[in-house]
Amino acid sequence: MTDRARLKARIQRAKQLERGFLLVAWLLLALLAAVFAGLFVSMLQTAWPRLQPDFFLSFASRRAAQAGILAAWVGTLVLMSITAAVAVPLGVAAGVYLEEYARQSRLTTLIEVNIANLAGVPSIVYGLLGLGLFARLLGFGASALTAGLTLGLLILPIVVVATREAIRTVPNAIREASYAVGATRWQTVWQQTLPAARAGILTGIIIGLSRAIGETAPIVTIGAVTFIAFLPPSPLSPNFPFISFDWVWSPFTALPIVTFDWTSRPNADFRANAAAAALTLTLMTAAMNGAASWLRYRLRRRQRW
Questions:
Q1: What is d(CA 62, CA 57) in angstroms, rounded to the nearest whole number?
Q2: Which of 115, 112, 98, 111 is nearest to 189 (CA)?
Q3: How far apart are CA 174 and CA 271, in angstroms?
Q4: For residues 194 and 63, what is the distance between their CA atoms, to the nearest angstrom?
Q5: Residue 53: which of 69, 42, 71 has the closest Cα?
Q6: CB neighbour class for 88 (10 Å; exposed up to 12, middle 13-18, buried from 19)
């Protein structure tokens, strides 16, 4: 057999292996999609009788037919607001510093390794940290602020890593062109690098929030309330400066907590409520991921490099 024939045979075997790998990958993807579809349909069938307006506009109750998730989904939005306010500025700033300003040294290498390791730490560890640091040491108690700060720490490594990866995709030619016209490093980062990397940064932020919205262990550890029949105080005040922060100190609950509580009850009607709450949480998470995909698509279409 000539060298050309051997090369042709090797290429043919490589193509066959590639087709086999793609077939296995598609089969596994189809299997996962079928499992998810089956679970979603089952959850929808169980939750369908409870998907009524009063379910979303009613407070918790000991009677399954009268119980609702008003306090739970409002509490979830409150927690996500605090989490985003904590994690987004710190995470983006840390990612920009490590990627654009920090010099390579043993300290920066240690920081990078620790950030990568923190992204894989179990969420219960963050719950214990929030309980000891925010609830007890700083005296914030079992408040929405404590839960939001804890979830902010939970997704902070995700935001840092996503920011760094997005900045790395920006071509160096953009930075060099900015420096060539006399821009400072900060002007280059603020006006060129960050706008070019915003699609990846926003995607990482929303993915991090999507993880935080479904976490149960940290907020259970902190002391989330399973039965609550009131909403947090309004952030608007009739008196100057017309803004109130009393809502951050209020007790809280969230959709994962309500779902966990209802699934532990023997009554079948509460299991229907749990399915409806879980479906609501799933749709909220899907909406956030859909928004991330849409933003990434729109922002990348505007980029010309």
A1: 16
A2: 98
A3: 55
A4: 52
A5: 69
A6: buried
Looking at this protein, which amino acid is placed at residue 75? Answer: G
Residue ranges in the chain assigned as alpha helix (H): 3-47, 53-56, 70-96, 106-118, 123-130, 144-168, 172-180, 185-188, 194-213, 217-222, 255-263, 268-302
Q: How far is CA 115 from CA 73, 81, 121, 203, 210, in A?
A: 31, 23, 10, 19, 19
243, β-bridge pairs: 236
Query: Residue 304 above 60 pLDDT?
Result: no
Residue 61 or residue 158, greater confidence:
158
Q: What are phi and psi of 240, to 5 degrees?
A: -60, 135
Q: How confident is the model at residue 87 (pLDDT cuts 50, 70, 90)?
A: very high
pLDDT at 15: 85
C-alpha–C-alpha distance, residues 129 and 134, integer Å: 8
Q: In a 10 Å sphere around its CB, with 0-12 CB exposed, 13-18 middle and 19+ buried, how is residue 154 labelled?
A: buried
- pTM, 2 dp: 0.83
- Overall residue count recorded for the chain in this entry: 305
Helix (H, G, I), strand (E, B) or coil at 246: helix
pLDDT(305) > 70: no
The secondary structure of residue 250, as a DSSP letter, is: S
Q: What DSSP character marks residue 236?
A: B
What's the token pair of residue 188?
Answer: 């280059």
Candidates 224, 291, 282; CA nearest to 51 is: 282
